[in-house]
Amino acid sequence: MPGKQTLIEVRDGEWMMPQQGAMTVPGMIFADQETIDQLLKDESDGVQWSALKQVRNVAGLPGIVSASIALPDIHPGYGFPIGGVGAFDAKTGIVVVGGVGFDINCGVRMLATPLEKSEMEPCLESLGEELFRTVPAGLGAEGNLRMNVADLNDLLRLGSEYLVERGIGFAADLEFTEEAGCMPNADPAAVSERAKHRQFRQVGTLGSGNHYLEVQVVESILDASSAEAYGLFRDQIVLSIHTGSRALGHQIGQDYLKEMAQASAKYGFDIPERELVAAPIDSEEGQRYLSAVACGANCAFANRHMIAHLVRQAIEGVVGTKASDIRTIYDIGHNNAKFETHNVDGVDRQLLVHRKGATRAFGPNRDESPAAYREVGHPIIVGGTMGTASYVLRGTDAGMAKTFGSGIHGAGRALSRKKAAKKYWGETVKADLASQEIHLWTHSMRGVAEEAPGAYKDIEQVVRASAASGITEPVARLRPLAVIKG
């Protein structure tokens, strides 16, 4: 058993958890003093879920490289903490179910319109009504895309490309989607029939929980050159779509918890937490899981792509702006495992980087970024809450060196959904939002209570901590005008 946890501040906003017990690398936590104090308090109080314990557990996994990393939005998750990053050597390392999670490739697509706030305000309520009507949302919601087994298998292999080939969306959307909207090596045979059956009618649906569709205004520009590269300007209307792989991703997670538990026993791994079951990357089990994760990621890309198509249709119908004039700024996920090349101790190494509630945040001059963004690095889209700001950030060279090019994905929860539902009333939250001129449409008032702004950390504090540590830089601050929730 480890002793009392010690964290050492090595520089502003960067803390080291020294190796102890089964740890083979240190932990590295990027956070402000208040967050660190809360993490230590939770550990000392013996709370049921401790994010520090999870950082420690990840640091003891076989083959982990450099450090177990946690970002400023850190809070407890399943296996990895949310806001957790772990990289493993591509040849000798492992792939970990808890490093990806159940909502595979949950992420955000941001759409830019040519409209300014003054042009949208007369249409805002009508647009909100139309988006609420046309974008299926809520638990068990079904979409309008009809597929047979062969169609779904094609979608799992091709991701967003499957829809573009059928005239849904535009080829330019692929250019401005992470991995061009298609993870390689996706094999539908690695996905169970139950997972596929659950997904047949869920492509193009928002879901529930923390997923949302927001109409937002660019309230301030914080990095003019990067904002210009991204096509962002002050008072611009943009839309953010936050959702993932829906039932298919969840079922893949459930299925492989069982398969990887058997693999962990087979390969003699000492697993400290159920969701940290794993297999060697180059094993049959590891390759099969990665193929299934790629399918889940492609499903999520396609899901956001389909919703973007519905959003464009709604805007064109209500406001009159042509669908072709509504541009994808970027589509990026924050629950995934990807093969990437990173410099470790002066040597370029191919790694399998797990990001759990963490966004790929590549800095300048990485080939993975769209050509239009390469000089500054691709956008990082960071969601706040229904009543607070969201941000667009960019990656840095320091972030590439310290976090394998990873950044925050949101504010991070401060209260569990259960605690939030006890503390807040959905109707009161909606009224509070209305007083701030934020319109809300929802399928579940309990869901609104669970996602109340007060259930999350202060997004301003989280973004400041990320910038102070040097791993990301803020580009633009966004404010919600209309929110669609499940």
Keywords:
8-stranded mixed sheet; 34% helix; 16 helices; 486 residues; 7-stranded mixed sheet; single chain
Can you characterise this structure?
This protein has 486 residues and is an alpha+beta fold. It contains 16 helices and 19 strands. The strands form four sheets. Strands 7, 8, 9, 11, 15, 16, 18 and 19 form an eight-stranded mixed beta sheet that branches. It has a seven-stranded mixed beta sheet with strand order 1-2-3-4-5-13-12, sandwiched between helices. A hairpin with a 2-residue loop joins strand 12 and strand 13. Helix 5 crosses helix 11 and helix 8 runs antiparallel to helix 10. The longest helix is centred in the middle third of the chain and has 35 residues. The radius of gyration is 21 Å and the shape is globular. The chain starts with 7 loop residues before the first strand and ends with a strand. The relative contact order is 0.17.
SSE arrangement:
Layout: E1 8-11, E2 14-17, E3 27-30, H1 33-45, H2 51-58, E4 68-75, E5 82-89, E6 94-96, E7 107-116, H3 117-120, H4 124-134, H5 149-158, H6 160-164, H7 171-175, H8 193-199, E8 212-221, H9 224-230, E9 236-243, H10 246-266, E10 278-280, H11 284-318, E11 327-333, E12 335-344, E13 347-356, E14 359-360, E15 379-382, E16 390-395, H12 397-403, E17 406-407, H13 417-423, H14 426-435, E18 439-442, H15 445-450, H16 459-468, E19 472-485
Parallel strand pairs: 3-4, 18-19
Antiparallel strand pairs: 1-2, 2-3, 4-5, 5-13, 6-10, 7-9, 7-11, 8-9, 8-19, 12-13, 14-17, 15-16, 16-19
Helix pairs in contact: 4-11, 5-11, 8-10, 10-11
Low-confidence stretches: none
By oligomeric state, this entry counts as: single chain
Helices, by number, come to 16
- Strand content is 15-25%
Percent of residues in helices comes to 25-40%
Rg value: 21 Å
Number of strands: 19
Overall form: globular
Through-space gap between termini? 42 Å
Biggest sheet, open or closed, and with what strands and sense?
8 strands, mixed
Mean pLDDT: 95
Name the structural class: alpha+beta
